[in-house]
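B., you asked whether I could sanity-check this one before it goes into the benchmark set. Here's the sequence:
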Amino acid sequence: MPATAPTVYLDHNSTTPIDPRVVEAIVRAWRDSGANPASQHGPGRAARRMLQEAREGIAELLGAKTGGMDADRVIFTSGGTEANNLALRGLVKEPTGGVAISAIEHPSIRGAADELRRSGRRVRTIPVEPTGEISLGPGLTDVLTDSQLVSAMLASNETGVIQPIAALADRARAAGALTHTDAVQAVGKIPVHFRDLGVDALTFAPHKLHGPLGIGALVVRHEVKLEPQVFGGFQQEALRPGTENVALAVGFHEAMRLAIDELSHRAARMQELRDELERTLGGEFPELVVVGRSAPRLPNTSCLAFPGLNRQALVMALDLAGVACSTGSACASGSSEPSPVLVAMGLPQPVIEGAIRLSLGAFTADDEIAEAVRRISNVVKHLRSLK
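And here's what the prediction gave me:
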């Protein structure tokens, strides 16, 4: 590959490049709002109005209730990880309250659950089927009976498999438990409606849908009590105090507006390109395994396993060849441990060891996929020749 050849970026589930239209919205906000939104003077009130418009716009786009005394709350955080921690640590309030999480959760959920376990709380695990979908079988009732909160992601960041969250929320409600879902990977790629899902809290972040880094949010149903994890201010009902970043909130709103307005076009295009990538590579490598293929998946995500190859060696070789991809969550990148998600699915060891994640964005081009296929094919053949 020539030294000047551009990298094909296929790691959008880690972070998406920001949409220039979102940059413009952020710059306008920086220009028009230089005051603290908590200040009582005119410039502060103007900043607060801008912040509130962004907050209400985001809530409306997500299908949260925005009007009346029982409006749902959108709490801005520094990103998805903080929002997930706020949900788990803020919703499990009783000293002995239990939590149930799925076996395929993001490290920020697993880490928060581990901290709850260290503080004496019960942590139960919801198993997953070989398809990558969480199990709603008879064993779920036992898991839910002593759980105050259930947390399961709406779509897997590694396999793209979409989870039956509405059904899980129904089961949890019947057992007297709250439900939280990490929808970071789903929002902007599939239709997501907070109220229709029936959950009590939902995490999302704009840097997965061509928005800014450094901001995320937790939407919480109005009647649900949330305990703060940060103290020292009155902002956001003291649930997450600290001066809000108005410009990033405006960029968050614009990124969501664009993603949802363009959702049908973006999703169809990403799925067409992803399917072409899987079809072409499968034609060259009959042993290729598309993890989660038999389940509903996000349109942009492909977890591909090349049995017999080492995933980390493959990712590094692809990086040198100009294809940016990953072995799973960016928050666990570099780990030599096998993917907990693929292990939970009960996949064969050679599949687990040889699996990488390719994830497309709204602006991935046809020629990039064709070039990626060519480079991936060359790298796989080269690594196989060394064995």
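One thing to flag: The chain has a mean pLDDT of 94. Otherwise nothing jumped out at me.
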